[in-house]
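The instructor's notes for this session suggest beginning with a concrete chain rather than abstract definitions. Hand out the sequence below and ask the class to guess, before any prediction is shown, which regions might be ordered.
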Amino acid sequence: MINSQSILTEDMLIRFMELNRKKKEMETELDKLKEIFHQYFDTAVGQNEKGEVTVNHFKLQRQIRKTEKFDQATTVQKLEELNLLELIQKKPDEGKIKSALDLGLIKEQDLAGCRLSKTTAALLVKKLDS
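After discussion, reveal the predicted structure:
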């Protein structure tokens, strides 16, 4: 068995604490910069809109990602009301629902209120070739 006292040193613990503190400082500063960038894009192109700006040799881009899912409880209830129990497992089967929509077995309005949308914004900074 390895003696844990011989592996861990006070210097390691001090260094860990220092790095953790620096990490928190960097995350705070990054969050402030992200907030400024998002405010810029919200004003320049609108909320939840993608955009890009070039500043000297750098390009800042905001990408918008949107994901949709079916709300589990609401979708199961709707599918039960439509007597489409084969589309229900323990949770709504999104693949089968999509197929049923594509085949016209159900309509989008039949599932009104079932989709959950999530929008996230991502920032990317690139150094441009001079």
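Then share the key points. The first strand starts at residue 51 and ends at 55. Residues 22 and 111 are 49 Å apart (CA to CA).
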